[in-house]
Amino acid sequence: MKSFLKYREIWLLAGIVVLIGLISTRFPGFAVPANLRQVFNDTSILMILALGQMVVILTRSIDLSMASNLCFTGMVVAMLNAAHPAIPIPVLIVIALAIGLALGAINGFLVWRLNIPSIVVTLGTLTIYRGATFVVSGGAWVNADQMSSDFINFQRAAFLGLPVLSWIAIIVIALFFLVMTRTQIGRSIHAIGVNPTASVYAGIDVGRTKFIVFCISGMIGGLAGYLWISRYVIASVEVANGYELNIIAACVIGGISIAGGIGSVGGAVLGALFLGIISNALPVINISPFWQMAISGSAIILAVVLNARGERRQGRIILRKAEAA
Amino acid sequence: MTDTPAPRRIPDRLDKPLSSAIFSWEALLVIIAVLIFTVNSFASPYFLDPWSLSDLTFNFTEKGLIALAMALLIISGEIDLSVAAIVALASTMMGMALQAGAGTPVLVAIGVVVGLGCGACNGLLVTRLGLPSIVVTIGTMSLFRGIAFIILGDQAYKGYPESFAFFGQGYVSWVFSFELALFLAAALIYWFLLHRTSFGRRVFAIGNNPVACQFSGVRVDRIKFILFCLTGLMSGIASVLITSRLGSTRPSIAQGYELEAITMVVLGGVSILGGAGSILGVVLAAFIMGLVTFGLGLLNVPGIVMSIFIGLLLIIVIALPIVWRRLREGRFA
Description:
The complex is a heterodimer of chains A (325) and B (333). Chain A has 325 residues and is mostly helical. Chain A has one domain: ABC transporter involved in vitamin B12 uptake, BtuC (Orthogonal Bundle). Helix content of chain A is 73%, strand content 1%. The longest helix of chain A has 27 residues. Chain A is globular, with a radius of gyration of 20 Å. Chain A starts with a helix and ends in a 6-residue tail after the last helix. With 333 residues, chain B is mostly helical. Chain B has one domain: ABC transporter involved in vitamin B12 uptake, BtuC, CATH 1.10.3470. Chain B is 70% helix and 3% strand. Chain B has 15 helices and 4 strands. In chain B, the strands form 2 sheets. In chain B, strands 1-4 form a two-stranded antiparallel sheet. In chain B, α5 packs antiparallel against α6. Chain B starts with 17 loop residues before the first helix and ends with a helix. The chains are: A mainly alpha (325), B mainly alpha (333). The interface between A and B is large, with 50 and 50 residues.
């Protein structure tokens, strides 16, 4: 039992249950299965984005360009759909994944080959990708009436009682779980975050692994681009502006250490759900949505205070600068 | 009689040959600035007018003030992403004081004190609780701007007094605005603080090796706390300037300024990993960003496209020396 309580995911899950309980005292209809399914569906995009960010943060890097990538890919896919409604949706999704992958690979290449710190690279590409969205669209919006009905309704179709969007999130979560716990690359990603120098001696190609994680986060950004645009049925330059920090917030609340090496798929998913529940609950319990920002800010600070205890390890700080060649 | 050895003078810094000054980061920035300046003056006939050039400075003075303090913070190995949120909160507090009938001196005092308080809050969380600053300030960024949203919602404060407008719109003499004068004065103070005092030396030392500093008797936490307070203070001052220039307060004021300030700092040659950088570089980077945005603005390039140039400039300027070194060593993969 004691070892069971050691997992921070258990505590986060308990926190979420308490949160839902508190909301239910004000609004009993919140905790019914139909509504919780709705909350899960609403949070699906944030969950998959948080998973993409998680693998990057685990390697002691950060990807600030995810929201801009989402915006760019979403715009391209929406324009493609508006111009050629005949392109089937699965093909569009593959295109979205490919564009996202390309944008992520640019980040990864700069980090891997030029050794530029990821925060600098993605700070640059954050503005470049969003600017590029303006260039390809000419500043115009793609509205709901320009999108085909397939484009809009694909993720809304019900399958075994859940919308396709929820199923996509579940599949992505399952894939990440398999990769992180059952494959070599998953172990490498963890190892690099814990100790990059030791990873080199263990035969892990640190640079290449970082390149791969940026490719993963890029693909996730691209996928989320299609999902976001088809969900909110508007593509503009302002889409998901500033959302990169929400994604990081979900990771931090989920117990993923910004110093790398610590974090799990379950944590990222629960962290995203926590934010999703708050944003869904505020309107129904009659709190102005303007409170949301301050509440999630407090949640981030609280989460990092609580998580910091488990992260203090002997000798960590001394090894920090001993980066791999 | 024994010969007493002549006292050995250990130089404070090594003599730098001229070549190192020519190939320094700052020299690269000067070249880029001159290039952009020349291109701009050919590209638009309106560019070389003294009043155009004066307007140009408004593009970077407020962010530049924040970047000066941010440079010290990043050199010490920390970061503050909440600066723009501090600007929003300080501006909101000034708006509240205005509603309560406060005059100009009180408004300015409130802006500065709120900034300082927010900085101290960040500093306490980072130093007392030993938390990573990037996460703490993502949290306080949401918190500070969130409080501004709770207070203001979709409303705005307007009707700042006439005398308050001087800070953001006034001129000290001829075309030299108060904002520019304040920025240059602050740059001088920060240059002295970082490059000519033992405090500045300690900031560099902490960025290079905080553990060794701790064992050398440097009060690492106290210095970091002071740096967070300074960053908050500068954000408060920037808030006074922006609020005065715009003449109104909305909770979305100064959105995205944190990333622009950090871009200035990194473009100025400050290592994002800490331990290296100079104030001169940051000031040059501020001018370059002002030149790029203003020059493109004169050519009717939309703001969002300008951001592409800023982003490219950031990556290229960082990547160039690395590629150059690799080419010389002949091991570019």
